[in-house]
Specification:
mainly beta; two-stranded antiparallel sheet; 8 strands; elongated
Length: 67
């Protein structure tokens, strides 16, 4: 069984859309330099809180995410 984690992709600072940077293995916000680790914790920049986690479940090999 695999451990699956999903997070909202909206920055907790001002709501810009984040993206994953494969080179740095960080989640980046292009608006004001917010940086999150792969667990959604704030590493740098102005975000006041980590990225919220979404409920996930693996069902018969499919990853289901509650949004």
């Amino acid at each position: 069984e695999h451990d699956v984690r999903a997070m909202q992709s909206t920055c907790t600072h001002l709501g810009c859309r984040t993206s994953y940077d494969r080179k740095t293995k960080r989640i980046l916000c292009p608006c004001h330099g917010g940086t999150f680790d792969t667990q959604g914790n704030v590493i740098a920049g102005p975000p006041p809180a980590p990225l919220p986690t979404l409920t996930t479940k693996v069902d018969n090999g499919q990853v289901l995410v509650q949004v």
